[in-house]
Amino acid sequence: MKDNEMKNISPNSTYQEMTPAGNIYGSGTSQMFNTGDWRTATPVWAADICKQCLLCFPVCPDSSIPVSDKKRADFDFDHCKGCGICFKVCPFGAITMKDGE
Ligand code: SF4
Fold this sequence. Notes:
Blueprint: E1 41-45, E2 67-68, E3 71-72, H1 85-89, E4 95-99
Antiparallel strand pairs: 1-4, 2-3
Bound molecules: iron/sulfur cluster (SF4).
C-alpha cells in the first residue's frame, strides 16, 4: 500500500484494505489521524511557570509539543494521547494532568 492510500483508511475500512498482518504502513502515519480523540487524561501547561528548558519536547511519543524559535507552545491536543510522560519529566511543575479531555 502506498502512503497516499493510507488517507483512505477509516473506521469503516475492511480488513482487505489493510496491510497483511496489520503491518504499519510507514513512518509518521499518526500525523494523518487525530489520535488524541481517545485521551482519558490531559496535560495542562502553565506557560507562566514554564522555563522553556524543552526537556518535555523530546520525550513526547507523539510529537504533540510544538516548538519554534527554541520555545514550546501549548499542546497539540489533536495528537496528544495523555500519556503523562511530559508531566513526569518537567522539573518545574509546569505541567499538571487532569482527568478527561
Ligand atoms: S519540561 Fe516543563 S519547564 Fe521545561 S519546557 Fe517543558 S513544560 Fe516548560
